[in-house]
Amino acid sequence: MGMVVKCTFCGTSEVVYVRRYSGETLCRRCFLENMVERVKATISKYELLNPFDRIAVAVSGGKDSLSLLKILVRIERDFPRASLVAITVDEGIPLYRDEAVENAVRFISELGVEHRVVSFKELYGFTLTEVVESNVSRSLNLQPCTICGILRRRALTVAAKECGASVIATAHTLDDIVQTYLMNILRGDTRLTPIGVRREVPGVIPRIAPFRLIPEREIVLYAYFSKIPFQTYTCPYTELSMRDKIRSFLTEYEELFPGTLYTALSSFEKMFARSSQEDGSFCAICGEPTSRKICRACEIIELVSSRIKK
Q1: Helix axes 63-76, 216-225, angle to 10 degrees
Q2: Fewest CB atoms within 10 Å of the CB: 8, 20, 150, 241?
């Protein structure tokens, strides 16, 4: 008989997960507790939150964002001066987003957290599906994911300001952040700036990523063990994105060489340059930080609006 492997943390329970990059073995209970502790450690390491923050949590309705909200609710109990508000952005993608918003509304209600839902339609006058199906995105030579990402970010900022938030928390994982850095480099943008690390700029709500040191696969397992709902529909535009190709490559590479994502993040962090926010440049229309006269969000809103009307 082979030796029975026990949990690294409690030393008694049956192992359900092996962290190949660290050699740790975890039982279900210790895994769930350890996830909360790792988020706390990340918040502390990067000084992501203050005890009195009004935290706007970006909750799409997917497993990552629902997991983040659940963990932050747990952590926030120890900080009575802090408060949480969940914000969901509805881009207007039939089935996929409808299901996600429904999941978000139900789950957030069960947690007893304040919730605000904003939509592309109410903010911009059009949905993402209208932009794609009218061929406006193609005429602008922009991928749906590019338009969606930029306008979703703007919608989140608008809603967070209306809710009086002092910080925005997003569920970007270690995988997401490394993917973004690599995508920026492949696009020729070598002027890297930190993603998900708090930076205070007057008039700007800082964004943080408490999951920035946690691999995507561990969020999936946390969501499964916590009975967080998984979406049955996938976004119809995902396969068109550059990120999807980068994601597949990095996932395969991490499988072959465990720890690669952490090594990559460490290397990228050493390459951080001064950001455009620190240069003091702001959009002439919305006032948000940008390296251009008019930010990309305002530019896209104007271009899409004029063509949708036609």
Answers
A1: 70
A2: 20
Confidence of residue 188 (pLDDT cuts 50, 70, 90): confident
Residue 92 region by backbone torsions, left for phi larger than 0, else alpha for psi between -120 and 50, else beta: left
Contact by Cβ (8 Å): 147, 137: yes
For 1, 7, 8, 14, 207, the CA distances from 4, given in Å and listed in that order, are 9, 10, 12, 9, 44
285-299: b or e for each residue (b if 16 or more CB lie within 10 Å)? ebebbbeeeebbbbb
By the 10 Å C-beta count (0-12 exposed, 13-18 middle, 19+ buried), 179 is classed as buried
Q: Which range of residues forms the domain containing residue 85?
A: 32-309
Domain count, the chain: 1
Q: Parallel, antiparallel, or unpaired: how do β-strands 207-208 and 167-169 relate? A: parallel
Residue 2 is assigned to a structural domain of this protein: no
Check residue 89 and give left, alpha or beta (phi > 0: left; psi -120 to 50: alpha).
beta
pTM of the model: 0.92
Cα dihedral value 299, 170, 266, 261, nearest 10? -100
Cα 81 from chain centre: 25
Instruction: Give the pLDDT of residue 190.
Output: 66
Does residue 284 form part of some domain?
A: yes
Please check the confidence at residue 85 and state whether its pLDDT lies above 60. yes
pLDDT given for residue 277 in this prediction? 45
pLDDT of the residue at 274: 44
Specify if 6 maps to a domain: no
CATH of the domain at 282: 3.40.50.620
